Amino acid sequence: MHHQWKAILSFIFTLQYFRLIRTLQLTEIVVPDVVDVRDTPTLSCSYDMGTHTLNSVKWYKDESEFFRYSPMMEPNVRTFPVDGVTVIRDSPEHYCNRFMCRIQLHRLNIKSSGTYRCEVSGDAPEFKLAHGVYNMTVAVLPQYDPIINGLQHNYALGDFVVANCSSDMSSPPARLYWFINDRIVPSDYLQPQQETTIENDGFILRYRTLEIRFHIDEARLGKIKGKLMLKCLARIDAFPQGTRETTQVVYIPMTDELRNQKLINWRNGAQSLHYRSHPHSQQHLKYVSLLVLSLLAIISLSL
């Protein structure tokens, strides 16, 4: 029994010892993978100080310090000039304490892409350190859906369709895809892709145009059922959150529909003819009546 109590007490003292020497550690770092150049991204890191007192939290971009939070100094927040990095000092997202530190950036540019590091340090005498690193890429993502030009509202079986799709400017450029009834079109429907390039604030912006050409043929398209849904999708493969798409529907009357439409038109034409001829019949009766009255008057005078 004595040995059991001794083992229990030893275990308790060990737990207390590890609690006392609990070390400083970074528990989470949040940096967006990809941001649009017009965005205001929020960066944050959380930490467990253990038995240590927080001395400072520093943010670096590519090894250059641009932000420091030091709760035991005045002022407790300082910023340093680094190309591509501007901290919003009065942002509601800006918040640092002994558990976490969150900052917000704005005025991004081509130099804002890079490696971001959050470094947390404890106070004297040990000055323990913990840090986390994450990469952020600044892109110019499409702001608008692709534009489809050239499609008519109605077609007939056998008609030849020509249309093109143009993406919004972006960096990196978007890849264009055509779909008919949610099925990607074969390559022989497509013309070579065209591209236009513009340089702006260090970004190489590109927009692309892809033309589609095909016959409305059930042998290749399958059962049409009166309409076709054409979709153009603009996708940046590395950044799927920038995907944009546009869909247009074109109508193709089937044989039965054309026959019914002709019958409707014939009936409408017959009714129209009836209504057009009716006033003339009334006028004819008036002439006959006047002629009869005239004959009666001539007969009475001769008597």
TrEMBL record:
Residues 1-23 form the signal peptide. Keywords: Signal. It comes from the Eukaryota. Residues 42-130 form the Ig-like domain. This is Ig-like domain-containing protein. It comes from Aedes albopictus.
